[in-house]
Amino acid sequence: MHTLYILWCAVLGLVAAIELTFELPDNANQCFYEDMKAGIDSVIEFQVVTGGKYDVDMTLEDPSGKVLYKDVKKQYDSYSWKTAIDGTYKACFSNEFSTFTHKIVYMDWQKGNEGLLKTTPRLAAMSQLETSASGISDRLRLIDDYQTHHRLREATGRKRAEELNERVMLWSLGQTCVILLIGVAQVLLLRSFFTEKRTTF
């Protein structure tokens, strides 16, 4: 049991993640920083949940200022890389092209080094129970990712449905007003046909 606890702590220590949802105002640029050592596998993933045309600019830079990833007006994307140098990596999200719509953006920055699991001598010879625990941990992490993506899609779909519902309601109110005006105009026109015009002598 003690060995299983040590294995679990080692697996949790190998993989770290930053997962957050933040608001990006119009004409704004927001950056996030992460200190990492060289040779670490990392994945950054983002998705615009609500706002405007659901797009955002994203730039990823290494500590020397070299641009590792840059894309404009993306709704969602994922980028994987292996760190080349030690230092602070920077991920910036920009909404500067938008003049009046703020956005809500989801970001998931995972960093971990799977290679350490192979180099540790004690962890190399795992029992069947330890292997099962490691497999369950991987599957739980995968399930958590699926649930997060499902929640994001649900939130995006709900927001679009609410916007569509509001537009349909406004269109329906406009149509109702037009129908009432046409009805009143028709009644007045029909009354004018049947009213006698008085002639004066």
UniProtKB/TrEMBL annotation:
Residues 1-17 form the signal peptide. It is a single-pass membrane protein; Single-pass type I membrane protein. It comes from the Eukaryota. The chain crosses the membrane at residues 168-190. It is found in: Endomembrane system; Membrane. One of its GO terms (cellular component) is endomembrane system. SUPFAM superfamilies: Supernatant protein factor (SPF), C-terminal domain. Pfam families: EMP24_GP25L. Residues 29-111 form the GOLD domain. InterPro entries: Emp24-like, GOLD_dom, GOLD_dom_sf. Keywords: Membrane, Signal, Transmembrane, Transmembrane helix. Belongs to the EMP24/GP25L family. This is Transmembrane emp24 domain-containing protein 7.
